[in-house]
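Researcher: Sequence recovery benchmark, item below. Answer with residues only.
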């Protein structure tokens, strides 16, 4: 199976799934507004389908790590996510909005499957020295999706109606199913090899993120950077209205950011070893801080340059973050590291948007300045974790992990577990 599964097949599935995911949020907002006629209910739908990712991500990661064929579990998660979108669409005109919100929250539990859960499988597709370049291409799928998804949602809604935009997002997610189903199985994993509980595995996944210095620093910096990015996104409509002459033109700014991130990641894909990923993470945060500070000037040209610079920071930072996760995540906890990290980033983004939204109406430059400060804080946060204490934590975890592995190997009917 490993030989028949190509990187192109993986990337095609990732683009389809992530484009459908990026399309689903705006499409749901447009559909909610079209049916209910309320911007409050429309935005509540988007919040409902994203807020539960913080809970669903770690649990989904544990299940992926324990699965003998994680690709099939991933495919099942995609089916349920797509089905949830369909139920929301059908129920908008037939069910109480409170019921729709519950469905949205439950559906959102599976959201990390389309981001961290998918990327966690990459080392089983590409091995050895080719992983760094493949990781850059994988990060590019996020940029492609963030560029294509909202544009497709708006275009389809304009031509065929808002409900059709939700249907197209469901179709895109469904197109990723063959690539997910056929993902290679982890080598040496046996059914029933886990002797620990799901709760203890959840705790182990969180501990490994905190205990490994590089992983902890990268995770903290990425979360705070996402707070900054959420603040910028909340300011986009007002920036479009006050600087570019129309709130709808704010979408152009997001497109500029996505294109810039895509180009920057394409360069990294050709020169994957030019700069260490740990260095890229904190320097990219500083690049974003400079970009946001430039955006406070209020000049249209400066604003466009600022969002282009911001994208040039966001894209490489994501690539570097994924590289650090691939390097630091032990095989038995790989899914947890990726899905938990993705969940925390989503939460950080939502927090930033929630803070900056009301503030931007009072002072748009103040909100942008706060976002710049958050990006600078992300760079400082990278160096805030002392390496000595973290290294001791790693050694303790190594001892515990080895003991758990010996216990699992000695259990009846269990074959050897993969080494971390």
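Model:
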């Amino acid at each position: 199976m490993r030989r028949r599964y190509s990187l192109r097949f993986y990337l095609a599935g990732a683009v389809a799934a992530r484009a459908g995911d990026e399309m689903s949020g705006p499409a749901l907002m447009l559909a909610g507004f079209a049916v209910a006629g309320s911007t409050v209910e429309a935005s509540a739908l988007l919040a409902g389908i994203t807020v539960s990712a913080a809970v669903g991500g770690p649990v989904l990661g544990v299940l992926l790590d324990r699965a003998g064929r994680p690709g099939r579990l991933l495919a099942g998660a995609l089916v349920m996510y797509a089905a949830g979108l369909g139920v929301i669409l059908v129920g908008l005109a037939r069910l109480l909005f409170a019921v729709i919100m519950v469905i949205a929250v439950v559906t959102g539990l599976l959201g990390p499957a389309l981001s961290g859960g998918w990327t966690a499988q990459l080392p089983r597709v590409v091995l050895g020295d080719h992983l760094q370049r493949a990781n850059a291409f994988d990060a590019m799928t996020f940029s492609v999706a963030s560029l294509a998804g909202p544009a497709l949602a708006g275009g389809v809604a304009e031509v065929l109606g808002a409900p059709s935009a939700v249907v197209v997002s469901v179709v895109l997610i469904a197109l990723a199913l063959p690539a997910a189903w056929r993902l290679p199985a982890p080598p040496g994993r046996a059914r029933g090899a886990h002797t620990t509980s799901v709760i203890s595995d959840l705790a182990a996944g969180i501990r490994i993120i905190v205990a490994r210095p590089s992983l902890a620093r990268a995770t903290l910096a990425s979360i705070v950077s996402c707070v900054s990015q959420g603040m910028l996104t909340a300011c986009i409509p007002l920036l479009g209205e006050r600087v570019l002459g129309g709130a709808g033109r704010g979408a152009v700014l997001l497109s500029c950011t996505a294109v810039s991130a895509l180009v920057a990641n394409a360069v990294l894909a050709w020169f994957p070893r030019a700069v260490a990923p740990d260095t890229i993470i904190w320097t990219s945060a500083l690049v974003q801080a400079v970009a946001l500070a430039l955006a406070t000037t209020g000049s249209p040209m400066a604003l466009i340059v600022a969002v282009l610079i911001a994208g040039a920071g966001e894209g490489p930072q994501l690539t570097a973050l994924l590289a650090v996760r691939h390097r630091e995540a032990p095989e038995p906890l790989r899914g947890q590291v990726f899905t938990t990290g993705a969940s925390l980033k989503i939460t950080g983004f939502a927090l930033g948007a929630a803070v900056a939204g009301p503030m931007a109406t009072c002072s748009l430059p103040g909100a942008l300045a706060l976002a710049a400060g958050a990006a600078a804080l992300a760079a400082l946060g990278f160096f805030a974790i002392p390496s000595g204490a973290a290294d001791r934590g790693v050694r303790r975890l190594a001892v515990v992990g080895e003991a758990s592995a010996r216990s699992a190997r000695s259990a009846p009917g269990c074959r050897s577990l993969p080494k971390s």
